[in-house]
């Protein structure tokens, strides 16, 4: 009789732990605060080589997409040493300050929407989101 009792206690503990873990997983996650919903990390930057040439330089298309649940504005990218041998529309991408580049004239980018621009150089430049202001209410 002592042997089954020794096995019953560990089995009951394991069962209880499984129930607790399952109950925690069933609860919806708390919504983040509005001020933290749209961090710079909620902006996705993707670059592709279009296969086109501007003179001897490759043409790259950059897509800056808002992955936040609400609209953002004032998106600034960081890109050390950025240059282009072809003109870039300054309404889409222009330098602001020492290291930043303003996207889409700083205008509102809806959730899931994107701003695209092209540049030409012998290589792609690394670009990363540096700042963003959310329009969450």
What would you say about this model in short?
The protein has 137 residues and is an alpha+beta fold. It is built from 2 helices and 7 strands; from the N terminus they run H-H-E-E-E-E-E-E-E.
List its traits.
137 residues; 38% strand; three-stranded antiparallel β-sheet; 2 helices; alpha+beta; four-stranded antiparallel β-sheet; 21% helix
Q: What is the strand tally?
A: 7
| Spatial strand order of the main sheet | 4-5-3-7
Q: List the uncertain runs.
A: 15-21, 26-36
Q: Estimate the helix proportion, in percent.
A: 10-25%
Using the alpha-carbon principal axes, give the shape.
globular
Number of helices: 2
SSE succession:
HHEEEEEEE
Largest sheet: 4 strands, antiparallel
Average pLDDT works out at: 83
- SSE-based structural type: alpha+beta
Give the radius of gyration.
25 Å
Strand percentage lies at 35-45%
**Separation of termini?**
64 Å
How is this structure best described in words?
A hairpin with a 2-residue loop joins strand 1 and strand 2 (57-66). 21% of the residues lie in helices and 38% in strands. It is an alpha+beta fold. The termini are far apart. It is built from two helices and seven strands; from the N terminus they run ααβββββββ. The longest helix is centred in the first third of the chain and has 25 residues, at 2-26. The strands form two sheets. The chain has a four-stranded antiparallel sheet with strand order 4-5-3-7. A three-stranded antiparallel sheet has the order 1-2-6, with no helix packed on it.
């Amino acid at each position: 009789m002592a042997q089954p009792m020794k096995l019953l206690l560990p089995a009951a503990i394991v069962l209880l732990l499984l129930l607790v873990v399952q109950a925690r997983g069933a609860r919806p996650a708390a919504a983040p605060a509005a001020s933290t919903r749209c961090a710079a990390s909620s902006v996705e930057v993707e670059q592709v080589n279009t296969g086109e040439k501007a003179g001897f330089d490759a043409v790259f298309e950059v897509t800056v997409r808002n992955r936040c649940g609400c609209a953002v504005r004032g998106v600034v990218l960081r890109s050390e040493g950025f240059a282009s041998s072809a003109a870039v529309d300054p309404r889409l991408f222009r330098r602001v300050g020492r290291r930043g580049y303003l996207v889409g004239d700083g205008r509102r980018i809806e959730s899931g929407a994107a701003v695209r621009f092209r540049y030409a150089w012998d290589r792609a430049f690394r670009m990363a989101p540096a700042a963003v202001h959310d329009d969450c209410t």
